[in-house]
Amino acid sequence: MRSRSCRRVVTLLLPAVLALPAGCRTTAEDRTPVKAGFTPSRLIDPVAQLDSNTLMNWDDMSALAEKLKQVNKPAVMPPKKNILVLSGGGAFGAYPAGLLVGWTEAGTRPEFDVVTGISTGALIAVFAFAGPEYDPVLKQNYTSTTNKDIYRMKNIVRGLLTESLAESTPMRDRIRQTATPEMIAKVAAEHKKGRRLYIGTTDLDARRPVIWDMGQIACEDTEAARELFRMVVLASASIPGFFPPVRIPVTINGEKYVERHVDGGVTSSVFVRPPWLPPADRRDPAKSGLYGSNLYVMVAGKLYADEEEVKPRSLSVLGSSVSTLLYTQAQDALFKLYFASALTGMNFQLAAVPDDVSCKIDSTEFNPEAMTRLFEEGRARAKGKDVWRITPPGSLPREVPAFRGSIKLDYLPPNDDTMFVPPPVPEAKTIREAVFGGPPSEK
By the 8 A CB rule, do 334 and 389 touch? Predict the structure, then answer.
């Protein structure tokens, strides 16, 4: 009971540090019965509540992004690249893990030129980069793992008086078992071919993101380098306050320091890096461009939190507010990736836990039964046609802001999911015309 209390405190205060899990957090037993004051937004018409909804919104911006993509199309198409971006999400990493395994089984999974990972996404990224031969290990990690395989809760008093509520020794040992010298050597070999694996952490004291080139570290081929490789993976998944920071020694201008690194999701929900190119090709548009390349983004969780009435308690209000803030930041980060892909001509493809999938676990609750359901859901979706979303968050009716000029609201049928169609973007011959609506002034 004491362990569950500690975990519950962290869930309330840091519900989405791993990125996007908190919307799947509440169990049926925890839900407060819906009262008259709680209005499910899925029933409210998200459009036509005010004239201000005709102003530019995310739909309009995505239409503009597609126009810019057309404008930037090169005469000679560069080589196609495949980039995989993995978010955090703790136990909800079972869904993208299932996607990868199902993708392999479908026979359409490409070799990724670049893989980036944050938090649980860092754990998945190593296997995704190493290749389909590690799918069995990936499946085992996200279908049979329990809490005791990841952490040990401290005494509540000791936890509150030290830097973490739990010890991450079990996760460290598990990483050591899976990040074997053979796997790290495989990462090094692929790095030498030009492929890249990047993992993000957060420097706790400097309060900034740090991106680690894991292939470069692997290429050092020393026991110290292999240990650093494992430490970075552990650090990226170390929720601050719940897990202790990972101390990483560095040498700067001959001076030795010790940095404390925590979950990469603290400073970035997702991140992308361009493919590596030989120096001779970097100034050649026909070789350095990304037009036509694929940007695959896998989110370990839902894009939007499930609605629930927040209990009238300070920790519940605080936890829900922090969760909402982090969800919004993650949505913004995904939209930036979408817009960047449009500007560079890449094909944006996004996968997240579907809205209709029940997720009755915490991000720090490693329940094999629940994780297996998520894994199999991702595995099945990867073999279907509806796995990838090509629009950014904010383009569906339930995702737009609530525009109101009155408290008398109209209700839609629950199954009405009509898309809002933005005004057409006029034809444009140049980027300037697409952005500013006309040619430059002759004055």
Answer: no
Q: How far apart are CA 430 and CA 126, in angstroms?
A: 41
Q: How confident is the model at residue 227 (pLDDT cuts 50, 70, 90)?
A: very high
> Is there a contact between 299 and 353 (Cβ–Cβ < 8 Å)?
yes
In 3D space, the residue among 311, 363, 303, 306 whose CA is nearest the CA of residue 338 turns out to be 303
- 89 within 8 A of 18, measured Cβ to Cβ: yes
Mapped to the 3 state alphabet, what secondary structure does 394-416 carry?
CCCHHHCCCCCCCCCCCECCCCC
d(CA 218, CA 223): 10
pLDDT, tens only, 404-426: 777 776 665 544 444 444 444 44
**Distance, C-alpha 353 to centroid of its chain:** 11
Q: How far is Cα 196 from Cα 335, in angstroms, rounded to an integer?
A: 24
Is there a contact between 351 and 374 (Cβ–Cβ < 8 Å)? no
Nearest CA to 138 out of 148, 129, 149, 147 is that of 129
Chain centre distance of CA 106: 23
Residue 207 φ/ψ region, left for φ over 0, alpha for ψ in the -120 to 50 degree band, beta for the rest: left
What the block records as the tokens of 305 is: 């939190």
Can you give the pTM of this predicted structure?
0.81
Contact residues for 208 (Cβ-Cβ < 8 A; gap 6+): 202, 267
Q: What is the pLDDT of residues 159-205, one digit of tens each?
A: 787 888 888 999 999 999 999 999 999 999 999 999 999 999 999 99
Q: How far apart are CA 431 and CA 343, in angstroms?
A: 10
Q: Chain-centre distance of CA 245, in angstroms?
A: 21
Q: What is the pLDDT of residue 117?
A: 96
The DSSP string of 246-296 is EEEEEEETTEEEEEEEEEGGGT-S----PPP--GGGTT-HHHH--TT-EEE
